[in-house]
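Task: complex structure prediction.
Instruction: return C-alpha cells for all chains below.
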Amino acid sequence: MNIFVTVGHTHYDALFKAVDQQLSPKKYNIINQISEGIYKPNNHQHFKYSNDIQKEISKADLVITHAGAGSVFNLLEISKPTLIVPNFDRIDNHQKDLADFVIKNNYACVCNDLTQLEKHVLESMGNSFNQYKKNNFCGYEKILEVINDA
Amino acid sequence: MLKERQKVILMVYGKGGHAAQMTRFIEGAPVELTDIPFIALTDVTIRDKNFIRQFYCIEARDKFSYMKNIITFILYFFWSLTQTIRILINYRVVSVISTGPGITVLPAIVCRLIGIKVIYFESWSRVFTPSLAGKFMYHVANLFFIQHESLQKHYPKSRFFGRL
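Output:
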C-alpha cells in the first residue's frame, strides 16, 4: 500500500516517529513530507517540501495528514482516503476543532492516539465515510458593497 | 504632501492554511475586485504573482512556545507598524482583506482608524471555537465572515457566505 504523510508548513516529529516505528516498510510504501521537522525517518523516504504535492497525493492509496485545514479540505474535496492526526505539539487547540468537525460529519478517520497508528490506517482503508460537499464562498458582492460605500 | 498614490487593496495573511485561503479568495474574485491591484503583507517569503508588491512581517505569536511569545509579540508590534506606515505612505489603500491570523490585528486597527474598510475571514479551521485573532478582529472589521455556520453564536453579527 502506498502512503503519503504530510504536515504542510508546520513540524510534527511525533507523527513521523510513529510512522517510522509502527508502519513496516515490508507492508507499506511510505513517502514523508516532513517540513521543518528534526526527526528524519529511517525506514521510509522523506523530503521537506514539494512543488507538486498533488502528484504525491494522487500516487498514494492513503494520505496521513496533520489536522491543518489547508491539507484536510484539499483532501476531502477530492475524496481522497485520508487519516487525520491532529498535532498536539502545538499550543493552540486549533487542530482539534477541525478534527471534531471531521469526526462529527464522518468525513474521514481521525487518530487521537499515536500509539494506535496502524489500527487507524487499517480503519481508514476499511470503513466507509460520508462525501464532503463544498459550499463555495459567494460573498464577493457583499465585499464590493462595503468597499464602495465610502 | 503625499505624492499621487496608486489605489490598491491590501491583503494580509499568514503562511500555511491562511495563505491557501487567500489564494482561493483571489482565484474566485470577480473582475470588479481584481481590477484593483493587490499588495500583500505576509510572513510568506515566496513571491506570489497575484500581488504587485509584497511586504514582509513576522507572525504575532509563536505557535509552539509560550515563552517566545513575548519577544515575538514586541518584535511583531514594531515590525508590523513600520510596514503599515510604509504601505500607507506609498499606496492609497481602499480596503484591507485578511484571512488571518494574528499578523492582521495591528495593521487592521491602524487602517480602520483612518477610515479604510477592513474585511476579515475567520479561518476555515474554526468550526466550534473562535480564534484569538478572530475575537479581536470581530470588533475591528467592517465585515466579518465565518466559514462554518456553527460559529454564529460566538459572532452574532458575522456573515456566512460559504467556504473559501
